[in-house]
Amino acid sequence: MTRPLLTEIDHVAIAVPDLDAAVTYYEETFGATVAHRERIDSDGVEEALLKVADSYIQLLTPTSESSPVAGYLEKKGPGIHHVGYRVVDCAEALQSVKDHGGQVIDQVPRPGSRGTTVAFVHPRGAFGTLIELVQE
């Protein structure tokens, strides 16, 4: 590998039971503003992205009981859900994970929020951290 595949931290995702309450907390406490808000039906979540420098805090709440985020909240409660890393080529980074014996959730990259391409790496193969690869 001649160049690093991870270029920046794209976002830190925080699972919350009440998206509006979490947004209000960040607005009132830190003066943060929502840069993007979107419902992603394929993942069963609604997100609010708060811009912090060149990255985001992604607040996530489930929109269905079958959402992985709903299961996370039930099992662990609110808190950090995953870290999103920016990559130049999502397919290349995902293949590198596979080539190095890592477990993946997405076998191929797929559409993400705000027009990105994403793929998730399973925490079992990534030292306990759910990783999202994000290609803008």
Using brief descriptors, characterize the structure shown:
globular; 136 residues; eight-stranded mixed beta sheet; 3 helices
Summary, kept brief:
With 136 residues, the chain is of the alpha+beta class. The chain has helices at residues 19-30, 68-76, 90-99, and strands spanning 6-15, 34-40, 45-52, 55-62, 79-87, 110-111, 117-121, 131-135. An eight-stranded mixed β-sheet has the order 2-3-4-1-5-8-7-6.
Reported CATH architecture? Roll
Structural class: alpha+beta
Q: How many separate domains?
A: 1
- Look at the structure and give the CATH class: Alpha Beta
Describe the protein's architecture and organization:
With 136 residues, this protein is an alpha+beta fold. It has a single domain, classed as 2,3-Dihydroxybiphenyl 1,2-Dioxygenase, domain 1, CATH 3.10.180.10. The chain has 3 helices and 8 strands; from the N terminus they run E-H-E-E-E-H-E-H-E-E-E. An 8-stranded mixed beta sheet has the order 2-3-4-1-5-8-7-6. A hairpin with a 2-residue loop joins strand 3 and strand 4. The protein is globular, with a radius of gyration of 15 Å. The mean pLDDT is 96.
